[in-house]
Amino acid sequence: MIYTNKFGYNSYDNSDMPIKKSAKKYMRVSARKAARNKIITGIFRSAIKKTREAVAGENAEEAKKWLQNAIKALDKAVQKKVIKKNTAARKKSRLNKLVKKTGQKNLS
User: Fold this and answer.
1) Residue 12: beta bridge partners?
2) How far apart are CA 73 and CA 69, in angstroms?
């Protein structure tokens, strides 16, 4: 569709709506996947955040509990292909290191 823009020139309508049926379906599918990925990302990010908060508060038991939740959420994210395997491994390793430090502080 051709329309006149505010400068008086003819322009084409560059809307994001595809024309082909398969392209329309792809847009629907990608929107569903993006919504699912956003939920999964939110779950593991909040679990990581809670673990870090527990570590900052020097509450070792709560930190261990949240570490378990974070590991489970990260593994789920890898399984659903939201994040890569090595990214999850790196995040788990760093969280585990933090929680272990908290446990050693409480012992001494």
Assistant:
1) 2
2) 6
